[in-house]
Amino acid sequence: MKLMLIVRVILMITFTQSFNAWAEEARPLQTDVVTEAQVHRLSQELRCLVCQNQTLADSHAELAQDLMQEIRERIKLLLITSWHVMATLCAIAHP
What is the pTM assigned to this prediction? Predict the structure, then answer.
């Protein structure tokens, strides 16, 4: 009896973790489109520090790729923060 309970708990935890991992993979698809559009727009405007005549988007320098990744992470963080602020304001306005 105890063994069955332990097996059920382990299966529930495993299922929950795998579902959460799947949900995390599935959720960003829409935000990735927005994020990538913003990264693309910014990388067309910003100049590479190594290849000063090229934009980040045109440059093949490792620094340019690192800068684009940093921009991508900052935009994602900004979007997540914005969603949390909006959710908080909605919760306050409609208790």
Answer: 0.56
